[in-house]
Inverse folding.
């Protein structure tokens, strides 16, 4: 169990490094979307391992709503750049 969680945390550090290294807005937004998805999958794995469905519900909500808000922000930034 601990090895899986540690591996997932290490996979989460890759997009954090990309967001820190790049100066472009789009690359940072893609990295943050990846962080959001990986964090919600981590929450789902932990909820299955702990057999706690309430934590799993939170992971599903983050997975479905979190990326939608990020994509809405990306469209707003794109429209502001077009004007």
């Amino acid at each position: 169990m601990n090895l899986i969680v540690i591996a997932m945390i290490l996979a989460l550090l890759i997009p954090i490094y990309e967001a820190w290294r790049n100066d472009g807005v789009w690359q940072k937004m893609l990295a943050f979307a990846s962080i959001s998805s990986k964090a919600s999958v981590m929450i789902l794995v932990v909820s299955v391992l702990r057999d706690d469905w309430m934590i799993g519900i939170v992971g599903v909500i983050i997975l479905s709503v979190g990326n939608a808000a990020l994509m809405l922000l990306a469209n707003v930034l794109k429209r502001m750049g077009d004007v």
